[in-house]
TrEMBL record:
Organism: Lachnospira multipara
Domain of life: Bacteria
InterPro entries linked: ATP-dep_DNA_helicase_RecG, DEAD/DEAH_box_helicase_dom, Helicase_ATP-bd, Helicase_C-like, NA-bd_OB-fold, P-loop_NTPase, RecG/Mfd, RecG_dom3_C
Class in the EC hierarchy, top level: isomerase
Function, as annotated: Plays a critical role in recombination and DNA repair. Helps process Holliday junction intermediates to mature products by catalyzing branch migration. Has replication fork regression activity, unwinds stalled or blocked replication forks to make a HJ that can be resolved. Has a DNA unwinding activity characteristic of a DNA helicase with 3'-5' polarity.
PROSITE patterns given in the database record: HELICASE_ATP_BIND_1 (PS51192), HELICASE_CTER (PS51194)
Pfam families, per the entry: DEAD, Helicase_C, RecG_dom3_C, RecG_wedge
Family matches, as SUPFAM superfamilies: Nucleic acid-binding proteins, P-loop containing nucleoside triphosphate hydrolases
Domain Helicase C-terminal: 460-616
Name under which the protein is recorded: ATP-dependent DNA helicase RecG
Gene Ontology molecular function, alphabetical: 3'-5' DNA helicase activity; ATP binding; ATP hydrolysis activity; DNA binding
Keyword list, A-Z: ATP-binding, DNA damage, DNA recombination, DNA repair, DNA-binding, Helicase, Hydrolase, Isomerase, Nucleotide-binding
Amino acid sequence: MDIKALKGVGEKTASYFSQLNIYTTEDLLKHYPRKYDIYEEPVRVADLEADEDLEGNVVAMEGVVIKSPDIYGNGKLKILSVNLKDENGDAFKVTFFNMPFLKNNFKLGARYIFRGIINKTRKMWTFEQPKLFTRAAYKELEGSMMPIYPLTKGITNNMLTKLVSGLLKEYEERLEPEYIPLWVREKYELAEHNFAMQNIHFPKEFDDYINARHRLSFEEFFLFILATLSLKSSKETNPNIYEINRLEKIDEFIEGLPFKLTNAQLKTVEEVRADYTGPKIMSRLIQGDVGSGKTIVAIIALLEIALNNYQGAMMVPTEVLAIQQFESLKDLIEKNGLDIKIELLVGSMTAKEKRLAYERIQSGEAQIIIGTHALIQEKLEYKDLALVITDEQHRFGVAQRESFSNKGRRPHILVMSATPIPRTLAIILYGDLDISVIDELPKGRLPIKNAVVDESYRDNADKFLEREVKAGHQCYVICPMVEESENFTGANVIDYSKELSKRLPDCRIEYLHGKLKPAKKEEIMRRFSKHEIDILVSTTVIEVGVNVPNATVMLIENSEMFGLAGLHQLRGRVGRGDAQSYCIFMTGKKSEKIKKRLDILKNSNDGFEIARKDLELRGPGDFFGVRQSGDFNFGIADIFADAQTLKEASDAAKLIYDADNNLESDENALLKEKVIEYRGKVLDKINI
Ligand SMILES: Nc1ncnc2c1ncn2[C@@H]1O[C@H](COP(=O)(O)OP(=O)(O)OP(=O)(O)O)[C@@H](O)[C@H]1O
């Protein structure tokens, strides 16, 4: 049902909802809480002193007024300040702004429970504008879990809570039929669908939440796997319609590379070449950690396809990366004296440039095409596209991958990923692809040295950057944001690079961020690659794929603001050459928790190990809306935290598929409808 059919949702609200990708009531029900507000037992001052993580967070405290409250302040601002003590007799304070009428509530000896963000100011634990409860009122709420939804401008939590709760009431009357066969629900102990919907939004108790979440994650994985299984079977019958031969020129090219391929690379190259010269169309995933050397494998394939007189295209997630790949491939082709024409296609090219590029692609003059999403523009036609490579493929949806492959007759597909997941999971998640793993780093790479530091290390950090620059190396500094913003207190690239230039006047410093004009981005990246810039201050636009092997230092400001997977990707921008490289994680806020998390990165350079340790640290109970891997953005399920559920869903899907691969039995009738709906609607939204 259209979201506008709901009472109180007009055109304007609907347009706000579209920002959250909510268009229908079904979308609204699938807009799961990000976390829950749990009314926990009140804490005491002693608890606050003992657990530093409580500061700055929401807590409840019970207290007795120990002094008649004061009102102070001038004309416009009136501050009511109340002194209290907790049951141990320890003092804390509460302040309210412009609410002088509350004064009468706080008679000497009155007892209340306050709930809000607690902070220590001038040695006193203080609430500002907390919510106020009588003990009886609080006890009623204690233990309950109120949903907190992801929001956007114009949509409040209150509004969502009301709409969802209204919808669920109605839903109960209309009871959606259960579509997972009974035997599956029994075997894997799955709650019923409607129960799960009700309890993911408004769990009465923690266990209900757990059961709801389990059912919904299972359901997401289950549909996803059934859909990919059917995709795979349709591919298996695709014969290789291209006449591609192994060429000596390619063997010579490999021989002539300035480095020796690792065994893992060699094996992967073999698998890829066997695929596209074999009887069936290739659908292969190359999985390898950052810096493991996936790109050269892709390049070898592109060259061999081009030399066989077909076209090959490689789609990458950012313009910066497209330009870089294009330039380095052009260099390689020239150096090796190969007669191959390559083309760049990115969104920011002028209409005329694009038209000319389109013409060369359509006529077949362009043999290798490198670009961004621009490669799958409807208007673009290829002459004879035989190979499609998507780099860092998790940025693209399955549907995009498919639409790309529909451009050719049915091209070979190669997908590259640095997502650190174990092979068993990869086999399930990439059900429609064969997998090659590059599990070995090039020889001579020294492990990156890591340090987790805070502001007190600033001078040393500056000296360190200077020293590396003097030694002829280059550095990245990452800031979490572009420019100063009111509600965000992290370093920003523009101010930061100004200040850094003052402190290190002998270094050539420039900044880069996503909002710069594409031509400017290109110019900066080109100059950095050519070592005309020593220190590049950047946002995370350089996170994926950027390759400047002479860079040896990665300094990440406010590293507590990034996820571990993102930090690992960023760090992967150094350590790409022979020289010793360093990664400095600078933190703005000191806390044991933050330190522990960053220590995981400090102690390991292995992507998968990091993901696993991160999960261990959080503990299996700590997964309220925490999605560790943004790469596979399922609605609620997380491939790491729910790895066991994923396995079960995969087993169940296979059992069903093996017994009834077209889902034709009565028992599977409703499931079939769902899978078809899922393939059409959801599969393209899941980024794998
Ligand atoms: N066998 C090798 N020996 C030495 N250097 C290599 C080898 N293979 C690749 N390289 C170089 O290592 C660097 C990183 O390789 P590449 O860019 O292919 O990594 P990647 O796996 O794509 O990493 P990312 O996921 O970070 O993009 C490049 O400079 C590349 O030329």
